[in-house]
Write a structure and sequence with these properties.
Elements: E1 3-5, E2 11-13, E3 16-18, H1 38-46, E4 50-52, H2 60-69, E5 78-83, H3 87-90, H4 93-107, E6 112-117, H5 124-139, E7 143-149, H6 153-162, E8 169-173, H7 181-189, E9 193-197, H8 205-215, H9 222-232, E10 236-237, H10 244-251, H11 260-267
Parallel strand pairs: 3-4, 4-5, 5-6, 6-7, 7-8, 8-9, 9-10
Antiparallel strand pairs: 1-2
Helix pairs in contact: 1-2, 1-10, 2-4, 4-5, 5-6, 8-9
This protein binds NADP nicotinamide-adenine-dinucleotide phosphate.
Length: about 270
Amino acid sequence: MKYFTMNNGVRIPVLGTGTNTFGKENGNFNGKVTYDTKELSSAIELGYRLIDTAIYYRNEAVIGKAVKESNVHRSDFFITSKIPADKAFTDTDEIVRHFVKQSLKEIDLDYIDLYLIHFPLESNEENLRVWRILETFVFQGLIKSIGVSNFNIDQLAYLIKHARIKPVLNQFQSFPGKHQQSLIDFCKDNHVIPEAYQSFAKLDAQIKDTLIELAKPYNKTWSQVILNYQVNEGLVVIPKSHNKQHQFENIDIFDFELSDKDRMTIKQMHVE
Ligand SMILES: NC(=O)c1ccc[n+]([C@@H]2O[C@H](COP(=O)([O-])OP(=O)(O)OC[C@H]3O[C@@H](n4cnc5c(N)ncnc54)[C@H](OP(=O)(O)O)[C@@H]3O)[C@@H](O)[C@H]2O)c1
């Protein structure tokens, strides 16, 4: 596995697994939580160490269970969770503290590697209020790093300016056709790691066809080309799959190099 070093000196795997439908009936986001760890266990066996969960996903306990069931040391994992922005989770400082403690209890792995604000709240001041509480968990050692998700440049800039602990990472939707290049550039200029979610899920059909052709000379798949491209652009990626073959493909992306021309073709892909 390759790693990036975040602005606090902590290393993060460049590739991990999404989990938003894992451990649930029929693999449905809204399905009943079954505590079945099969998808995660197969990902861990294949070498995935970064696991991306959230309070919203209701499966933090499934992640903790899979990690404990594995033969891999806790310190080799990198677990991310997130607090929702909704008032039910953030209305008062006490509520925020309650839900962060609840996350720690559900995951039950002594500490969480990275904790994100899942979506921006209604104002920059509100974001900062929740941020200040997350900072206290870092000071206590219960959370190692903190960051944000779905923040735009303005929201990120405000936080960077006012925070005691700078956000290490911003997780947002990014895929060929909708890279969000200016946000990626802003993150990199400010030493905040950009992390892509939904690298595949919203891909335009025509763009996918182009990527299938582009991948052929490398003996790789369109999905491997996307992940290789994103990692080389400095993004952490968190593809999710319920299929072991796809999980294997998605981690087998480090043995080829896209030509400058192909990289440029992907960079310029754009859908209105
Ligand atoms: N911060 C946020 O607001 C936010 C929002 C959305 C998602 N996320 C996070 O990002 C993660 C990834 O997003 P996502 O799960 O929505 O979408 P995704 O990873 O982009 O795509 C998942 C879909 O791609 C398919 N797939 C995966 N690997 C494949 C491969 N090698 N070949 C062909 N198809 C493949 C999967 O089907 P199979 O299962 O059949 O392989 C599944 O249908 C989530 O699980 C979650 O952890 C965060």
